[in-house]
Write a structure and sequence with these properties.
This protein has 538 residues and is an alpha+beta fold. 27% of the residues lie in helices and 20% in strands. The chain has 16 helices and 21 strands.
Length: 538
Amino acid sequence: MLARLKRGAAALAISAAVLSAPMVAHAQEGDTITVTYKDDIATLDPAIGYDWQNFSMIKAIFDGLMDYEPGTAKLRPGLAESYEISPDGKVFTFKLRDGVKFHNGRAMTAEDVKYSFERTVNPATQSPGAGFLGSIEGFEAMQGGTATELSGVKILDPKTVQVTLSRPDATFLSVMALNFSFIVPKEEVEKSGADFGRNPVGTGAFKLAEWTLGQRLVLEKNPDYYREGAPKLGGITFEIGQEPVVSLLRVQNGEVDVPGDGIPPAKFREVMGNPAEAAQVVEGVQLHTGYITMNTKAAPFDDLKVRQAVNMAINKDRIVQIINGRATPANQPLPPTMPGYIQNFEGYKYDVEAAKKLLAEAGHEGGFETELFVANVDPQPRIAQAIQQDLAAIGIKASLQSLAQANVIAAGGSAEGAPMIWSGGMAWIADFPDPSNFYGPILGCSGAAEGGWNWAKYCNEALDEKAAAADAMVDPAKAAERAAAWGEVYKGVMADAPWVPVFNEKRYTMRSARMGGDDALYIDPVNTPMNYRYVETK
């Protein structure tokens, strides 16, 4: 991941400067809206961007072969007009739409699809999501440097692409709606080089009009967008460097339309206690788990007993209280609404004395010192302090490293990793609604590579094999069997204890009185946090 500029004490000064900045001047038609964020955006390159903040921005600028019905987790064709799947579930043939253009005016072709997939898989790109395309034939050869093309991607004609998989993959169509498989124009990538993430060109509903680092990013409507009726807005201005409390005040004053970082926990009860403001609050259930990672490749967390002790030391009920009860305690990686969730699973119960005993058995009777990394946006530092106190109760002295979100992500994805990370603010929200998505990128062996999101550096090859077997169940009639198979995978994960699953969080945000549309678009299950293509003003 690319590190983002850190905005701390200067945030209020930036806010004042941005406040006087003009609204987007490039919009074609339709109202413009203003969204605020505390931290700058790391990148808008779909092969690289993978944090909660830029996820929906990238989806506003780029498209994939597949898409979702607005505000739902129901797949539909995107840049592909139609598709066919072979009887063995290994060959997918996509027919591309007519009339799709990149923002530079050039028509999209099958060549662009092949190039985009290969760019993501190419190790030189250092894509944190390359593993999502791991079922395409030729993936291993490209990753290993023995091939420069994906043998499984064939261009049948300018409007037809055939993708052959090395194994059946029940998640493949969902992956085609994920940003790592979004389509980019080769000439623009080559022109911008490493700066393509700052100069993005896609086929999406919006295109980049302006980006002043640390201050604001402006998107304008793409008048040539292929979907009729989208986007609903003429443009979006993202104001950067705004503390969440200031953003909330500006929403209350009608100056801002959506606070990107949500409602600050310290202000939650105040907002909900005001009927007029509560009416503007949007609540949504997310496929989300917040967790603590432990670096399983470095001492002392390479010891199972140490990891189990940490699991027993964390008082999850107390942590949930810190965020005003806006979550439920978790005991496994999957959230309760995800297929594969294990009902009545006990997990590791909170037990300080048992945790101390395990530490002593591991040779750490006096405890040890370590570091806990945390994003510096409230309430994450307060949650980290509670974790710090829980660890101290069993003798573990954890110093807090409170950094900008992108810097925490960079530390976790580095080759050596970080000892411990509280994932809050970056915690896993499903890329697509399938149990596989909570495994490969954050618990599977492929995600443990440099730049990946498996911050525990955890790799259990036997579980990887079981996960692959579960994903080979392409037949919808085997959905229940497949969910049960995934449940067994996650039981195995918890036996190895690379994480402490802490809670499954609900998300709350606000929208200004002039904003319209379905609530589900503001906390979108797959365009997290917001579906910019379809939100609108009244």
